[in-house]
Amino acid sequence: MSLIFAYAAILVAASPLSSAFIVQPTTRSYQGKTLSSELSIIPPIRRRSNSQLNVVENSGALQQGELFPLAQEIFPGAVTYNELLNYIVNTLTETGFDLPKTLLGTSLCCDELNRPLEQLLAKIFENYYNLGGMAGCAFGGVTSFRKMKSHVPDGGNAVIVFGTHVGIGSQGQVGSVEREKVADGDLCCRSAILASEYVSYVYNGGTPDPSPTDLSDISQHFVQNMLMPQAERLENSQNRMVELPYALYDGQIELIRQIIKEGSEAGFPGVVAAFGGIQLNTPPGYQDYFVPLNGDLYGEDGELIMKFF
Fold first, then answer.
1. CB burial class (10 A; 0-12, 13-18, 19+) of residue 147?
2. Angle ∠(27,121,123) on CA atoms, nearest 5
3. Are 78 and 289 in contact (CB under 8 A)?
4. Distance between alpha carbon 269 and the CA centroid of its chain, in Å?
């Protein structure tokens, strides 16, 4: 632990980590492609990720495929998985994490398009613990988090990668994407889009669904409830499909923080680094992207120690 805090103190005082990403403090004002100076991002992460490529390259955790510039045009600040992986590896190493003793947890949507990021991460951290469910929400909850913490190697720590996701089609359409061996494009994220339709229905006077009496679709019920506080924001957005993953993420980050806080009260050892954002699923043959929104370090008690960005 002393090593972690020593590195944390050094990083806070002298490292560019806190400005590695320049992101708006809240996404509630985000309106489609209307950007402010606060949203001009990226160079710092690329400079830092290029400094220590060997760990990621030697692990074989490199995403292949052509770049897809539309992703960064529609979602400013998006980085490739390769850039994200290098940033995470460099940041954890500089913070004092021993990678072989670091347990990875993920909370990403069930959609098969999101498995490649987990598979790349697993090449670095050897395996991963799944905390997530529909739309990327951490439905494993406090119990799942405590189980994960109990599996952290002796003397080690944990890292969590989480977030929402959205598809971008070959013509730039947001909310759907082409899939391998599927003739027509498909909704992505379908769970988020269905929740968005429900939220709009209720916001405009529809009757809310009653609490479910069985488990057959209970996860979707909670995705809808998580998105409900963002109803007005979505109704007033210039591009609802672009705004949707940001709106849903706002609920997810609060859930993650609550889980880490309550789950850490059991006294399991090890600190937790959490990196959250939005996965951008692109057409077959292209690289996927990630919009980084939060990078935090939590102590053994679940309290925030520092923000990486």
1. middle
2. 170
3. yes
4. 24
> Which residue has 């520092």 as its token pair?
306
Give CA separation, 140 vs 256, 263, 275, 304, in Å.
Answer: 10, 11, 17, 21
Q: What is the mean pLDDT of the chain?
A: 84
For residue range 87-98, what is the model confidence (pLDDT) as tens digits?
Answer: 999 999 999 999
| pLDDT, tens digit, 9 for 90 and up, residues 161-190 | 999 999 999 999 999 999 987 767 789 999
Continuous segment of H or E residues that includes residue 306? strand 304-307
Please name the amino acid found at residue 193.
I
Q: What's the confidence (pLDDT) of residue 168? A: 97
Bridge partners of 306?
297
Could you tell me the residue ranges of all domains in the chain? 2-23+39-307
What is the distance, to the nearest Å, from the Cα of residue 295 to the centroid of all Cα atoms in its chain? Answer: 10
Supply 66's token pair. 């052509």
From CA 83, how far away is CA 289, in angstroms rounded? 9
